[in-house]
Structure formats: structure tokens, C-alpha cells
Amino acid sequence: MKEKKGSLSKRILENWQLYLMLLIPLVLTLVYKYIPMYGIQIAFRDYKSSRGLTGSEWVGLKWFVRFFTSPNCIRMIKNTFLLSLYSLLWSFPIPIILALLLNQLRFKKFKTTVQTILYAPHFISTMVICGMLRIFLSPSGGLINLIAGTSVDFLSEASAFRTIYIASGIWQDAGWGIIVYMATLAGIDASHYEAAKIDGASMFQRIRYIDFPELLPTIVLMLIMSAGGLMNIGFEKVWLLQTDLNKVTSDVIAVYVYQQGIENAKYSYATAVGLFNTVVNIILLIVVNRLSKKISDDVSFI
Q: Tens digits of per-residue pLDDT, 73-84?
């Protein structure tokens, strides 16, 4: 034990600059992630700003019961889950496919141009994106209606909201999502492709037997990260695209928390709803993490 302690202290002294650099993110994580968790108790109190956090009355699960018995509870949970799930199912594979296809391009200038075009929408703010969507989908003079020769108010159609949300998300973020996958593919030794070409492998065979196996660990990692935030629907876009007529499918937990917490100043109730959402995300993260390990262990045919 003494030798281990001595060797540990020796390594710290020899590499103190690295440990000092490591200390910075640790302190930031502690200050901004863990210390604020103390405020979770607001969800179990009848919080009054005049009484403070610890002075407010303890009410236990009162706010959770109120949420689960509210008339729109099931609808909000269903909308949040379905919108997140559909977004994951449609949005997650697109960057992978784009990265695999872009990696096959051999004309560097053309490849760079395509990448830039795909990246560009990510830098447009959500408010501008929603403004563009409202113009494109306008029943009077909107681009979509002009092409289709109709005058449909798509944003007032509850059945169209999820399609609009998911499609706009793919357009905005798919290009940015390929960066991690392109970085992984860039690390593949070029001799593998040369050997595959000599053996007569087609483009799709090279993708299947060279590119995809290299991407698989990254895909699993990104899937775990995406699933961990499955219930975290982007508040801004839903809020900006929501109308009274599409609330049947656009009424999600994030917007409800904002309305109750910021607009109605029901801090305890909003915290309880947000805490429920977080707990669901943690459970999903654990489940997907275990499933992904089994899948990655079983994928031996590639």
C-alpha cells in the first residue's frame, strides 16, 4: 500500500500540469452540475421566495400527484416520447449515411463544398429556422403550397406538426452530425481500401467491411448519448411552431414546464415535472447502454 501511495504521489508530482488542467473541468462540473442539484428539493416543497428554499413547507409528492392527475398529462408524455422517438429513428441514421457516402468522394474540392453546404443550416438560429418554416408553409404564397397548388395551413394541422419538426431538424443538424463520423473515417488506413480494390471489392462492400466496422463503436456511443436525452425535446422550436390548433401533437413537457414555471411562477410544480422528465431520461440511458453493449458484442458478422 505504501508503495502504491508513493508511486501515485510521485506520478502526481511528475505530471502536476496535467492534473491541474484536469482540475478545471472537474471544478466546473461540480459548480454547474452537482451543486445546483441541491435545488431539486423544490419539487418536494411548496416553494415561496419569501421563505427561501429550506423555509418553504415540505409537501412530499403533492406536485407529482397533481401532474399525473392533470387532464393533459398522458397527452404531454405521449407527445414528448413519440416526437423524441421519431426524431431519433429518422434523424440518427442520416448523418451516418451521409458520412459513409462523403467518404467515398475522391474530389477534395467537391467534397469540401458538399460538406460546407451540409454544415451551413446548423449555424442558423432556431428562431430564424422557424420564421423560414412559417414563410415556406404559409397558406397564402408559401413555397410548399405554390409547388403543390394548394392553400393548406400546415402549421394548423396537428397531424403535420411532427413531420415538420423532424424534417426541419434533419435539414438543420444532419450536416453537423457527420463531423464525428467523418473524423472516425479519416483515421482508417488508406491501404485497406487499396487492398480491397485489388481484391475486387465494390464500393458498397468497402463500406460494409471497412467503413462500417470502424464506425460501429462511435455509432453505439452516439446512440447512447442520443437516447439519454430522448425525452428532452428542444423547447424553442416547439414553442415557436406551436399554435392552438396543433396542440394535440405539439403539447410537450418542456413547453409545459416553461408555462408553469416562468409564466405562472409555479416553481415547485414546474420543478417536479422537470424532475420526472429527468428521471425517465436516466432510466432510458441505463437501458440503452445495456442493450448497446449486447448488440455490439453480438455484431460479429461484419
A: 999 999 999 998
What are the chain's domains? 62-298 (1.10.3720.10)
Kindly report the three-state secondary structure assignment for every residue of the chain.
CHHHHHHHHHHHHHCHHHHHHHHHHHHHHHHHHHHHHHHHHHHHEEEECCCHHHHEEECCCHHHHHHHCCCCHHHHHHHHHHHHHHHHHHHCHHHHHHHHHHCCCCCHHHHHHHHHHHHHHHHCCHHHHHHHHHHHCCCCCCHHHHHHCCCCCHHHCHHHHHHHHHHHHHHHHHHHHHHHHHHHHHCCCHHHHHHHHHCCCCHHHHHHHHHHHHHHHHHHHHHHHHHHCCCCCCHHHHHHHCCCCCHHHHCCHHHHHHHHHHHCCCHHHHHHHHHHHHHHHHHHHHHHHHHHHHHHHHCCCC
Please tell me the distance from the alpha carbon of residue 166 to that of residue 84, in angstroms, as a whole number: 9
Distance CA 46, CA 52 (A): 10
CA of 227: how far to CAs of 23, 86, 89, 180, 283, in Å? 29, 12, 11, 17, 10
By CB atoms closer than 10 A (0-12, 13-18, 19+), residue 109 is: exposed
pLDDT confidence tier of residue 5, bands split at 50, 70 and 90: low
Taking the C-alpha atoms of residue 40 and residue 19, their distance in angstroms, rounded to an integer, is 31
Q: What is the pLDDT of residues 162-178, one digit of tens each?
A: 999 999 999 999 988 89
Answer for the pair 272, 253: CB distance below 8 angstroms, yes or no.
Answer: no
Q: What is the per-residue pLDDT across 61-77, written as a single tens digit (0 to 9) for each?
A: 999 999 999 998 999 99
Distance from C-alpha of 266 to C-alpha of 259, rounded to nearest angstrom:
9
